């Protein structure tokens, strides 16, 4: 683990009455400990990676509490881990990113939900939906419906989130049903406070192990008991859940008890709704609503009598439910119909069928709803549309998008430079892309990738392309995806089926896109590391692949050559290229302090960075189109004769060497140079420089640096960056 | 009932990985320190890596007995009180989103550009117009302060976000006392340099970049006023590149064109630029000359951040291919040699040279190459370049009677030709295509001159827009279609 969470760990130790301050996902983590969990697991992914990252560094605390922590190799493993709560009265929680993680976990979820749990089981899903999302836009709600899981969607303030975690366990136990708690991106990162409770030790933990459970066929998800289990879900567990929800007031009735109109809203959307109601004078910054509002902190199951009671006697009710399909609205309509209530129901008629419910969207829907019932609340007309128009006129051109891109010095970028050069030489090649940092290659300037089918699935997604395409397809996969799914679904499958494809595995040492988590092939080295340094090549050969080459990513010409070999090899079958280069973020985190220390200690250190000669650069920017490094940018030519800006390497350069490699590989131009700065030069350096400088002067040159005295004065530390 | 208390809403637009998260953290912690209700949220995720991203903060004075506040998680267009922008284009993007409004928004924006990949990728100048981006902010905000806070950050050795925090504190737009901000910084990392940055921003010692207007040139008196400074620059360049004779040849050409009927100042100025560049087009000799230049050294030392006692070495990445090496020979030898190499399929071969001019061997190699200056006029490269220039000038001359604008576009078409090796070949091929498919129809009377001028411009921009793509193909196809079927209105003309 490379990122340090000292402050966060301290807040997990807070006791009763102390004030916790932090982000939503950390509050969930604390709430898990307050709930007395026996075990926690999960798989990394925004926006919930933090939960696992923090716990992984809280070894002492978990040791004290006896909490078993598991870094699962995938969401399926995490979901399966909840099996402990099927057989034992243990509380457990797992976490992952939705919707993708829930898809992967689906098999285990079905077989978990069928027998149900005797210890509270909570799945914390990061609902990666709306602005900033990185996955297909679908709702977790569908999984709750099909598997009969409880679904909590708390109001995005910390006390409510924490309460729903605690109540989620109790609800799960009361109804023997696993619960999902969904947190949207902004809720995971919302900063707030709540009054903490003491952490609780679980009755069963590694400090107090249980006896193995006795054999009980009824607890298996296996026929014939699956049939009574199905009946039990609806006949006993569902009513029990509804009873608990009502009894403990998990859903909140806010605003006046009576009114002509009413709003039913998913808990997670409440703050956005409140802001728009406040703008209309129907609420304020403290949520003192002037319109009856039912806040669903539990969105599945709904409690029919609560819904019917709320709607009865109202002239109209608006359901504010984000995403498609409109599961909640449909369910409410059914409840009303069965209760023979004729309250007009609105929702997706005034609000969009799909997409994020951002403030303007909610505002427009509300306005229509209120207008329909003759409630003309005077909202101060927004100046936003006119402002947007004015800004567009002022800019007078389309503002280009700014997609995320590979970090400065990223070791994956060179592979895509090579692939772009390959494309220029051989023409188009089918590229099966995957999930991970390398998916940034789908953006400018690389524009590569024909499909993305799922994490670790690139090779599998090219299975039918291999053999039906004029060229061998290239599948790209990260090491994260490789261990998650790719080794089996991709490599073993392709070897078994004799697929004629090329696989490039990016071996950068971490699950980088999700925050530098360790994976089986991560370095074993430092004390915080959890890696096992398992060589990816060995795993690949272990499942029967024979054509396996390893390349170093910064060697663009080498990568290009190997790619050409793989594409042109006369023998059919899978060709695997392991492209190795450590994640630059991790590398810099490790190297920078070490280098600064060494320099301060007077040790000889060579630091490199790149530059571009403005006079030599002609301003065609082919280098940028092949490279795209954030530190490779533009600046005015500084030459009155040259109108076009020239390429320029800014101070962020980490000296990875790609600029020079690309200049060579693409035979670009001679404007790139590398500066090697020898800090605390040794005797040999100084003597060589003296001789060199003497020689330069002899031929009329001027040296760039004068030879320092042999014993340099006390070393000056480099300012920390 | 008193008027309801409203939170102050702060939107921050930034680039992922720049420290926007730290900035909002300081604001939130300062607000809590000052006893305010505060919340903040962000959407980091994938946007971390230099993608466009936003952070959002709401703060509100607290009173005893307040119920828990329900603060917003999303910025709403039309409801942003303070807008902080760490980059100009991102600020303009949010202005286009309606987040800056005349009634309430105070916009504090760093006059700084981080170019998008789209802007950087263009073969010419794809940069957005900075003045217009700033204008978008100024026209939409209640009050806009756009200053070079990045320079302030560099001067103080602090991060830009610390300077921005100081600017925010100084404006008093948020009900948080400055000392609370200082305390928040002290609680974090790199407190010392960040406090320095904060104070610099707080003192408001903004240093708006004053662009020094180029001094009106004293140049050859027989040229139009606007061309003189450029011509003087061109003369200097060519004297340095080759000799006074070449510079004189350049001057004579300019004089000849200035005397042609229809040639205005703008045309001669454009010609002064492009002709000087073409006549001094970079060959291996020139590159060696530039790499050994004394003026380069201080810049390199500064870039290396070398301290006294450090040793700096420079490594040049040169990889001349057969075309570049052989074109140093006289045409009589070079041409057959190139044909031979081409037949053998060796044109793609080249030797990577990592030359270090700070070491004896590398220095000597560059010195020898630079010393070939006297030989240059005999080289194939020179002969080809001269022929290209002659052909181009003929086209300018032929276009001139059809209209000054058309002729200017022909002059500017030289901007297309640039680069080394493959880039050089590609840009030349594009230029030839455009001249053939756009200018020739105009010269033959198949395309009205005004339309042709537009078409030339469009074709040039398309060729630069995505040099390896098909934008030029599409543009030329559209122009060809236009030539084949002139619109009725045109026919009526």
Automatic annotation (TrEMBL), chain A:
GO biological process: small molecule metabolic process
Superkingdom field: Bacteria
GO MF: catalytic activity; metal ion binding; thiamine pyrophosphate binding
Domain spans labelled Thiamine pyrophosphate enzyme TPP-binding: 434-570
Residues of the signal peptide: none
Database matches in Pfam families: TPP_enzyme_C
Cross-referenced InterPro entries: HACL1-like (IPR045025), THDP-binding (IPR029061), TPP_enzyme_TPP-bd (IPR011766)
UniProt entry keywords in alphabetical sequence: Metal-binding, Pyruvate
Name of this protein: Indolepyruvate ferredoxin oxidoreductase
Native source species: Falsiroseomonas bella
TrEMBL record, chain B:
Full protein name: Indolepyruvate oxidoreductase subunit B
Domain Pyruvate/ketoisovalerate oxidoreductase catalytic: 16-202
UniProt domain DUF6537: residue ranges: 228-437
GO MF, one example: oxidoreductase activity, acting on the aldehyde or oxo group of donors
UniProt xrefs under InterPro entries: DUF6537, IorB_Oxidoreductase, Pyrv/ketoisovalerate_OxRed_cat, Pyrv_flavodox_OxRed_cen
Superkingdom of the organism of origin: Bacteria
Alphabetically ordered keywords of this record: Oxidoreductase, Pyruvate
Species for this entry: Falsiroseomonas bella
